[in-house]
Amino acid sequence: MIHPTFEMMPAHAEPFEATAARLRACRLCRDAPLFGAPLPHEPRPVVQGSATARLLIASQAPGNRAHRSGIPFSDPSGRRLRAWLGLDEAAFYDSGRVAILPMGACFPGLDAKGGDRPPRRECAPTWRADLLAGLPRLDLILVIGQYAQAWHLGPRPGGLTETVARWRAILAASARPRVLPLPHPSWRNNGWLRTNPWFEAELLPVLRAEVAAAMAGETE
């Protein structure tokens, strides 16, 4: 089941571009944080999309490189993700077909071990419903990582591994837009990929076929 946000969207949604412009001016997590300390740097929301997008990449939060460049997945994780999807850079960054909405729109900073902090908790409740309402033509949603999976699929037992392992049932149960869960393409998940070879052997071929169909508008 898709997150109930899709069932509660307004009949007359604001255009995606207008919502994204308001989001890019947001400073909530720095100036009036609701959860914990303020964001320790200038916010730079990084999103992509348009009303014609067919594919949504629901991700975690921009990394430091994306924060500096303003371009989502402009790092090795992005190269791996594009390889998984079977898309080159031109197709991946075609906002007319591909929307990229992280659960937290800004780089959340680094933790004590040098990894990215979780997405800021202020972001999704404030912005996600309006952003999704501006994407009326979605055919496929790729939910990457535990935060996006919890939002779009609801809490599930067993964590990320069991959620991704149930990808066939999730894909089959989804009304349009269809949903596929994925792990994060970060190098930090290399061990996960080694211990779960079914991901590359079984899920990736289906993922690429579903992405190709959505990009071509063949799922209506």
From TrEMBL:
The record ties this protein, via SMART domains, to:
UDG, UreE_C
* Superkingdom to which the source organism belongs: Bacteria
Q: Which Gene3D superfamilies match?
A: Uracil-DNA glycosylase-like domain (3.40.470.10)
Q: What InterPro entries does UniProt report for this protein, alphabetically?
A: HI_0220.2, Uracil-DNA_glycosylase-like, Uracil-DNA_glycosylase-like_sf
Domain Uracil-DNA glycosylase-like intervals: 46-208
What is the name listed in the Swiss-Prot or TrEMBL entry for this protein?
Answer: Uracil-DNA glycosylase superfamily
- Organism of derivation: Methylorubrum populi (strain ATCC BAA-705 / NCIMB 13946 / BJ001)
